[in-house]
Amino acid sequence: MKVKVTNLDNKAAGEIELAEAVFGAPVRADLMHRTVRWQLAKRQAGTHKTKTVGEISGTTRKPWKQKGTGRARASSLRSPQFRGGAVIFGPRPRSHAHKLPKKVRAIALRSALSSKQAEGKLIVVDSAALKDAKTSALNGHLAKLKLTSTVLLIDGPEIDGNLSRAARNIPGFDVLPPQGANVYDILRRDTLVLTKNAIELLEARLT
Predict the structure, then answer these.
(1) Cβ contact 119:190 at 8 Å
(2) Whose CA is closest to 80, among 44, 105, 55, 43?
(3) pTM of this prediction?
């Protein structure tokens, strides 16, 4: 499929042929959902923890004698039934990461790229280099491209330094290299902007 190419000033810069297998693949919402869950699970710190009886600081004295009080028998004030006591079967530090086949991840990434193309939310620019590292200049380019919502820009393997610095102060604007392209970041931003160099590398990666 052919797509129009523009520059950062929204002026025509020719056309580019997109690989049908990457940008015209069937959209698998189920696999994209699995991949997003896999990505977010890996990010979880897993540092949640509650204390067991052996970790609660306090007296080891028996609260009252075993028999004759009419009360339920108790061995320690650190037991879970007492205020400030232990937590039974509480969370422990662990990793939330789980495995997901590479083929599933690749299909999900192709689906994410294809969904943006199908929705008309994919913009191709010839390059994304800026003369100055100024946020105002980048905002001007975004206004010319009529990008008023959240944007993900995927550039070449070496991201322009001026672009990276200028984008830091713009909320909802992310810049990634092709090797960092992922389903979660593509879906969480409304518009996807790709450079010609990024398309070549993504197609080489996914075909």
Answers:
(1) no
(2) 55
(3) 0.84
